[in-house]
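Quick one: examine the sequence and C-alpha cells given here and explain what the C-alpha cells say about the fold. Here goes:
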Amino acid sequence: MKIGLLGGTFDPPHLGHLIMAEHVLEVMHLDEVWFVPSHVPPHKQKSSLMAEDRLRMVERAIEGNPQFSLSTVELEREGKSYTIDTIKQLQSQYPGNNFCFIIGGDMVQHLDRWHRIDELKKLVQFVGVGREGYQLASSRDVKLVDIPRIDISSSMIRKRLAQGKSIRYLVTHEVYEYIKEHSLYVSDS
C-alpha cells in the first residue's frame, strides 16, 4: 500500500489539515493518509494541550473518511519526535507499505536542517504542499503538490478561542464540539 504520513501537533486539527491530506491522497495516488500527532516536535515548544486531547480531536476530525487513519507511533514513543525514528519504526512494523511524508510548503526550504536528513531522504519520499499560485522553492528531494489556498492555522484558531471568537467552519463540527465540551484553549484572564 502507498501511505502518506502527515505529522504535526494538531493543536487543534483543522480543515486545512484535512484538505491537504485529501489533495495529496489524490495527486500521489495514495491508498491512505495516516495522521501522526507528535509528542514533542523538535522544532517547537511543547503543545498547549495534553496529547490525549489532541489525539481525540484528530480521531474526530478524520472519522468520516475511510482513507484517513490515526497513528499513535510518536505519542507512544514520547520524548522528541524525530521523523527518522518514526519512518524507521513504521517501515519495520509495516514492511509491505511504501511511505511518503507530507510537509507544508514552508518546511521545504528548511528540510536541510532536519535531524539526520541525508539518511531520511534515502528512506522516504517527501511531498511538499503549496498553495495554488504560490511558487514553492523547488528541491530535487521533494515532490511538490499544489492545493487550494487555505489560510487556517492552529495558532490562529487558538488565538481566536482565547479572544472568545468563533472557530466554526475552521474545524470540523466534531472537533468544534470537543473543544466546547472540554473548554479547551480558553483564556485564563
